[in-house]
Amino acid sequence: MSIDYEANSVDVGLRLRELREARRISMRELARRSGLSANALSMIERNLTSPSVSTLNKLALAMEVPITAFFRQEPEKQQIVFRKANQRNRVPFMRGLWEGLGGESFTGKIEAFQLTLENGGSSGPHGMLHTGHEFVYCLRGTIEYEVTGELYTLEPGDSLIFASQLLHRWRNAGKTVCNAIIVISGFEESDHPSEYHLASAQTNGEGAQDNQEIK
């Protein structure tokens, strides 16, 4: 399974400019914070070059936003959401891939996404917590959840449900690629719980490479 950057049609250059201007950060200041040149930033904003995930990671950290902020769309909310497999929003991170399953378009308080993790892929060394309730279902391989210090090892067909305000993190505990479905519900209106997961994972290393493949 390859990481498909074309699967997400969001204008990253435009989103970068919107995020930067909304925070009143000048091009020169963002260059200083991110370690990138002002010329490189200008080329990204004008879509003259496509940034790598590593570059997006640096920009996200510099502006204190999750990397998903570059890909977030604000679609019209619907009561019924049908999402084809090739229409998912996909965001790669170090040793993993995040795929939205349509919750961003749904009117209710629910987010669903699929995780694909290589051996060693994880949400990082630090736990996270957010509002709502979390359901995890292992599809393939082995995923390990640590919730308030207790370890739960999920193999294909295993599931886990817990209150998301409990400190938690996850990792691929096996030697092969793992896939898991995560559903978060009942969170506060202002929360974007899936972004806690991805933001935690994106800081766990420099970022995925453009030609990374998960098989």
Distinctive features:
215 residues; alpha+beta; 434 Repressor (Amino-terminal Domain); Jelly Rolls; 2 domains; 6-stranded antiparallel beta sheet; 3-stranded antiparallel beta sheet; 5 helices; 22% helix; globular; disordered N terminus; disordered C terminus
Topology:
Elements lengths: L11 H11 L4 H8 L3 H8 L7 H11 L26 E4 L2 E5 L9 E8 L15 E8 L2 E5 L2 E5 L4 E5 L4 E5 L5 E8 L7 H10 L13
Antiparallel strand pairs: 1-2, 2-3, 3-9, 4-7, 4-9, 5-6, 5-8
Low-confidence stretches: 1-9, 206-215
Query: What is the number of helices?
Result: 5
User: Mind telling me the CATH class of the largest domain?
Assistant: Mainly Beta
The arrangement of helices and strands along the chain is HHHHEEEEEEEEEH
CATH-scheme architecture of the largest domain: Sandwich
Biggest sheet details:
6 strands, antiparallel
Report Rg. Answer: 17 Å
Number of strands: 9
Number of domains: 2
Shape: globular
Strand order of the largest sheet: 1-2-3-9-4-7
Beta-sheet strand percentage?
15-25%
* Mean pLDDT over all positions: 82
What is the fourth-level CATH superfamily of the largest domain? Jelly Rolls
How much helical structure, as a percent, in the residues? Answer: 10-25%
Q: What structural class results from the helix and strand content? A: alpha+beta
* CATH-defined fold name of the largest domain: Jelly Rolls
Distance N terminus to C terminus?
5 Å
